[in-house]
Amino acid sequence: MTNNINIRHLRAFIEVARESSYRRASETLCLTQASLSTTINQLEQHLGVKLFNRTTRKVSLTNEGELFLINAKRTLSEFDFSLSDMQSRAKHKKGHVTIAAAPAALAYLLPNVIDQFIQLYPQINLTVREETADNVEYLLRSKKIDFGLQGKHNHNSNFQYELVHQDYYGIISADEQAQESGSIETTDKVSWEVIKDHNLLCMTENTSIQSQLNALKHYKTHSENRIIESNKPGFIVDMVERGVGIAVLPLLTISSLMHKNIKFQRLEKPEVYRDFFLIKDKDRTLSPTSSCLYEMIIDSLKFESL
Hints:
The chain is an alpha/beta fold. The chain has three domains: 7-90, Winged helix-like DNA-binding domain superfamily/Winged helix DNA-binding domain (Arc Repressor Mutant, subunit A, Orthogonal Bundle); 95-164 and 275-301, D-Maltodextrin-Binding Protein, domain 2; 167-272, 3-Layer(aba) Sandwich (D-Maltodextrin-Binding Protein, domain 2), CATH 3.40.190.290. 45% of the residues lie in helices and 25% in strands. It is built from 13 helices and twelve strands. The chain has helices at 7-19, 22-29, 33-47, 63-90, 103-109, 111-120, 133-141, 176-181, 208-214, 217-222, 233-241, 251-255, 288-301; strands spanning 52-54, 59-61, 95-101, 124-130, 147-150, 159-174, 185-191, 200-203, 226-230, 246-250, 262-268, 273-281. Strands 3, 4, 5, 6, 7, 8, 9, 10, 11 and 12 form a ten-stranded mixed sheet that branches. A two-stranded antiparallel ribbon has the order 1-2. β1 (52-54) and β2 form a beta hairpin. α1 (7-19) crosses α2. The longest helix has 28 residues, at 63-90. The chain is globular, with a radius of gyration of 22 Å. The two termini are 20 Å apart.
């Protein structure tokens, strides 16, 4: 991670220096304090120097930090000027960008960044398709999309995969109290052994979610009570709400369905994550506008946490 220093790290450093506070800087940058602290630590590790003196009451620049602040401000100023210039040019550009994404990514991860993109590039036509991981790669091979965002790494040597988000798995079950609270998420954690005591509703094997689960020893050991399989997570959750059984799904999948009277319990020992990857063809150069959206998605998602 220390080799992936970019403009985000400079913005974070300059804002902490300006505010003399991680809390205030994190509020300005719309980051959690933990994410901001990680960003500063990565920058310090890359530079090999300590940039801030930290106490419980105060954050102040070290001598090295004072020197680096001068260069950081100049670099950021030049970057912002270049960006502003390109944005001015883009206002008069026309073009078309086509992307494809997994349903959960489309519902939960992309709306904010797409909103920002169309404000920056109002003359660009954008097509966003909801597709499975296999279809995303087919469309990419067929040159029908510019890039994709999917919850599966197929290790295709023709493609470049960029990890941008991780979503954790949990057990969902019917819960009347959850309906009253208006939230599906709980802080409870459960072990994989809970699965064996209930009827289990599953996704079909051709889905990226189920193929990942089927490869897990802890899931296979306790999943003998399968009674329903479907390629539609909405149907699975509907059946869970009716008390037919339980299901193992990622949090984003059920969050995008807006169901209320279910309970989500995060699985542990081990915790399992569904990784989301940006994927593009190694042999195709993205257009400037497509590349901008690609980078905006990376910037938007890499420091988010659930």
